[in-house]
Amino acid sequence: MKIFNNIADLQSEIRNHKANGNTIGFVPTMGALHRGHISLVDASKAACDITVVSIFVNPTQFNKRSDFEHYPITLKKDIKQLTEAGCDILFNPDEKEMYPVPDNRTFEFDGIDQVMEGHFRPGHFNGVAQIVSKLFDAVTPDQAFFGQKDFQQLAIIKHLVKSEAYTIKVNGTPIVREEDGLAMSSRNVRLSPVERAKSVRISQVLFEVKQKVWNTPVEEIIEWVESQFKNDPDFKFEYFDIVNAGTLQSINSWNEGEEMNACIAVFVGNVRLIDNIFLSI
Questions:
Q1: pLDDT tens track for 199-233
Q2: What is the C-alpha to C-alpha distance for residues 258 and 246, in angstroms, rounded to an integer?
Q3: How far apart are the first and last CA of the chain?
Q4: Domain extents in the chain
Q5: Phi and psi angles of residue 236, each rounded to the nearest 5 degrees, phi first
C-alpha cells in the first residue's frame, strides 16, 4: 500500500493508474477503522481496479470543538488493517493540505439537511459536503463507497454528486454490527464497559420497531421508542423518526410499498450514537 500526504503526489499516482485503464474506487474515512470500514474497502476492491482510502478528521463537520479533539486517532492500527485488507493507496493529509484557506462555500440540499441530524447538528452536513467535495476533487474516483449507518449522510452525498455534476457512482453498503447487534462505530471505543453493555438497547429497539410495522400506528411506535430511554440516566434520548427513504420526510401512516427508514440518535453517557433500520411493508 502506498501512502500519500499531499494532493499533488496522490493525483500523479492516480493519473498513472487511469492511464493504464484502471478504475478508481474511493472510501473516505476519519480513521479509527473497524470492520464496517473494511467492508467498504472490500466492496471497492470487488467493483474497481484500484482502491483509495482517505483518513482525515474533518474539523468543519463537528459542532463542538471538544468532539473534534476527542475523536479517536489510531493511525498505526488503521494502516495495518488497510494493508491486510489489500487497500492500494492511503491518502492521509493534514488540515493545512485540505484547508490551505478557509472554505466558506455553502451547499443547498433541498431540505434533507434540515431534519434529524441536521436539526440537532446545524451546519454539520455543509461541513461534510465541503470535505467530501475536496476529496472527490483530489482523488477523482469512478466510484465511492459509504456505509448505510450514516443513512442521512449517504443521501446528502448523493445529492452533492448530482448537484455538483460529479461523474461518480455512489454506493451505500449495509451496516456492519457487533455480535450483540450494536452498529459498529469509531465512537464505540469511548464507551465504558457499563455503557457498552447498555448501548445494545439502541439496536434492540430498532429490531423491535421492525416487528411492529403495520400492526402499530406510527405515532404509537414513536412514543414507545422514547419510553425505552427516558427513565434511564445513562441514556439521553435525542430523536427517533420514521422517514421516507428517498425524501427523508417523516411519515405518519403506513403505506404499502413505501420504502422507509427508522432512524435514531441517543447519547450513552457522553457518547452520541446513531443507528437506523430499513422498513418495508
A1: 999 999 999 999 999 899 999 999 999 999 998 99
A2: 10
A3: 45
A4: 2-173, 186-272
A5: -125, 100
Catalytic (active-site) positions: 37
Q: Which tops the pLDDT comparison, 63 or 32?
A: 32
Q: Cβ distance 265 to 120 under 8 Å? A: yes
Q: Which CATH architecture has domain 186-272?
A: 2-Layer Sandwich (3.30)
Q: If you average pLDDT over every residue of the chain, what do you get?
A: 96
The alpha-helical segments, DSSP class H, found in the chain are 7-19, 35-47, 65-70, 75-85, 95-98, 117-120, 124-139, 151-163, 193-212, 218-227
Cβ atoms 114, 122 nearer than 8 A? no
For 221, the grid coordinates are 411506535
What average pLDDT score do residues 124-152 get?
97
Task: Report the distance separating Cα 107 and Cα 118, nearest Å.
Answer: 13
**Apex CA 112: angle with CA 171 and CA 69, to 5°?**
75
User: Which candidate, 103, 20, 101, 22, places its Cα nearest to that of 60?
Assistant: 103
The hierarchical CATH code for the domain 2-173 is 3.40.50.620
Beta carbons within 8 Å of 273's beta carbon, 6+ residues apart: 183, 185, 187, 188, 199, 202, 265, 266, 267
Q: Taking the model in full, what pTM does it have?
A: 0.95
